[in-house]
Every structure is written in structure tokens, then in C-alpha cells.
Amino acid sequence: SQKIEQNSEALNIQEGKTATLTCNYTNYSPAYLQWYRQDPGRGPVFLLLIRENEKEKRKERLKVTFDTTLKQSLFHITASQPADSATYLCALALSSGSARQLTFGSGTQLTVLP
Amino acid sequence: GAGVSQSPSNKVTEKGKDVELRCDPISGHTALYWYRQSLGQGLEFLIYFQGNSAPDKSGLPSDRFSAERTGGSVSTLTIQRTQQEDSAVYLCASTLETFGQPQHFGDGTRLSIL
Asked: Which residues in chain B have their CB less than 8 angstroms from residue A30's CB?
């Protein structure tokens, strides 16, 4: 069956370090993958999209990699700050012809300690 | 407004009652999604609307759940004869229906069934 797994439910790191979050999937052939940030009591907010033919995407302190052989995406936050503390969700889109549906992972809760 | 608006933000009701949840999408967004998020879980797809096409209802968990979208804009999710397992946050998202566009989420309705 199809499955998306995000690494450990909670990740604590020290301010200034690089946070690395993992999204693994099985039995999917995603057309693209998105990462969202969700703060308590709020809806998810889009951060980055990476397509199946892209290896890496960057936006300011954020970097996403996508390895379709390993069936894995890594999400990095460099020079992390306490304000980066949130839950991060990965989401896969299955069809290259439509953005009809995203399938979300359960998220990784990141805490950046001052 | 500029973003997706959902109402009410919180709803507490007794088991067996019907509830209606409202979503106002971003103006001009043709696609609208409803998701359900239980505590500590990822987003569970419920239903998808795209323009005048028939909605994709494949995620609705039972026939107690229904949704409509009037005039291609506002959507209402209705849950009849609510059960305790319906307690969750119900999130609405809208997007431009082109490949790879991010979904824009409201902050959800937190539904509690007593």
C-alpha cells in the first residue's frame, strides 16, 4: 500500500544548527513534492515545491532535495532560529496532469532551542 | 479578504446533532479542498471541487458527510448525526488549478463532539 513517513515525531535542535527533516515514501511515483509549515492552531503554509526531475531547490535558509531512486526528500533549515519551531509537513502530488490531490505526511514537530 | 476564511473557528456540539462548516476561498481560485486533521496526525483528504466539474468525493468517510460549493466560491461541509470520532480540525484550502500550484489553507474549524 502507499505510504508516506516523516522522521521522528519530534526533533529538537540548538539554535544556529542545521535542521534536517526526512520524508520517505513507498509505492508512489510523485510528480512533485511540497513542504508546508504548520503552527499550532493555524492552517499549513506552503514553503517549497520540488518536481520529480529536480534534485534540489533553495529558498533563503531553506533547502529541499528530492531523490526519486531512494524515494526520499530532505528538508533543511540552516542557521535555525527559535522562530523556525513548528510542524513541517511533506505532501506528494501523484499526477503530472493535475494538481488535484496532495497526500500529506503526518509531520515532524521541530523545536529550536535558544 | 486576502486569504482563505473558515467559520466558525470552534464548534462544540452534542453527539447526534448536525453541523455546517463554511469556507470562503481566495477570490479567483477555481479549486477548493476539504481536509480533516486529527490530533497529531496529517491531513486526511475529504473532498475536492474544481470549477463546474463534479466534485471528487472519494475521501468522505461516510454518507453522513456532504459538501457543496455554490457559485464556484463559498463551500459548506455538512456533517449529519455527528459522532465523537468526528471530532477533529476541518481545514479548507483553495488553489489556482494549474500544475504545481501551492494550496492556500484557512485556519480551520475545530470541531468537538461531546
From this structure: none
Q: Determine which of B6, B99, B107, B111 to mutate to test the interface with A (most A C-beta atoms within 10 Å).
A: B99
pLDDT of residue B82: 97
B49-76 exposure pattern, b = at least 16 Cβ within 10 A, e = fewer = bbeeeebbeebbeeeebebebeeebebe
* pLDDT at B51 (0 to 100): 84
Could B102 and A93 be called an inter-chain contact, meaning their C-beta atoms sit closer than 8 Å?
Answer: no
Q: What angle do CA A79, A83, A86 make, to 5 degrees?
A: 105
Asked if the model's pLDDT at residue B45 lies above 80, the reply is: yes
Distance from CA of A71 to the nearest CA of B (A): 19
Q: What is the pLDDT of residue B42?
A: 83
Other Cβ atoms less than 10 A from the Cβ of B80: the count is 14
